[in-house]
Inverse folding.
C-alpha cells in the first residue's frame, strides 16, 4: 500500500511538472475545464456525497454492533480463572496453552514481595584507551570538469612559428 501511494505521488508530481512546463498541455487542460467545468464540479460533489453516505452507513452499523455487544448479558464465571466447560472463543493453540499456563500459575502460591535494596555509589567506569586516530590524506582535485564542452589545445607561440615556417 505504501508502494502504491509512492507511485501515485510520483506520477502526480510528474503530471504537475509537465503541466507547468508544457504550454500545449496547459491549453488543453484549460479548454477541457472551461467546456466541461460544470460537469466536473457535479461529478466531484456527487462522488463526495456518495463517499460521505457510505462512511455514515459503516459508522451506523458499527455503532449498532457495539451497542449489541454492550447490552449482551454477562454470565458470571465461577471457579478458577481460565477453566470452563465450553470455551467462549475458538482460540489459537498457542493462546490456549498460554491461558492454561497462566491459570495454573494463578492457582499456585503468590509471588514473594520484591525487596528493593539501595545500591552503593558505583565507581565511574573508564573506557579503555583506544588506538590513536589515523591520519587521512585528502586529495583536492586541481581541475574540475563540468560538462562536455570541447576545449581547444593550447600551444606555445614558439611552436606556432615553427609550424608556419
Amino acid at each position: 500500500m505504501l508502494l502504491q501511494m509512492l507511485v501515485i505521488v510520483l506520477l502526480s508530481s510528474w503530471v504537475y511538472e509537465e503541466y507547468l512546463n508544457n504550454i500545449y498541455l496547459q491549453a488543453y487542460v484549460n479548454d477541457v475545464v472551461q467546456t466541461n467545468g460544470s460537469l466536473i464540479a457535479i461529478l466531484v460533489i456527487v462522488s463526495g456525497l456518495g463517499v460521505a453516505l457510505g462512511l455514515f452507513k459503516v459508522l451506523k452499523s458499527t455503532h449498532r454492533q457495539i451497542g449489541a455487544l454492550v447490552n449482551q448479558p454477562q454470565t458470571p464465571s465461577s471457579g478458577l480463572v481460565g477453566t470452563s466447560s465450553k470455551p467462549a472463543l475458538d482460540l489459537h493453540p498457542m493462546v490456549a496453552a498460554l491461558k492454561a499456563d497462566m491459570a495454573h500459575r494463578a492457582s499456585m502460591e503468590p509471588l514473594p514481595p520484591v525487596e528493593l535494596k539501595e545500591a552503593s555509589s558505583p565507581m565511574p567506569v573508564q573506557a579503555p584507551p583506544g588506538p590513536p586516530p589515523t591520519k587521512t590524506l585528502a586529495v583536492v582535485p586541481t581541475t574540475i570538469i563540468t560538462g562536455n564542452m570541447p576545449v581547444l589545445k593550447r600551444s606555445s607561440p614558439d611552436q606556432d612559428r615553427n609550424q608556419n615556417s
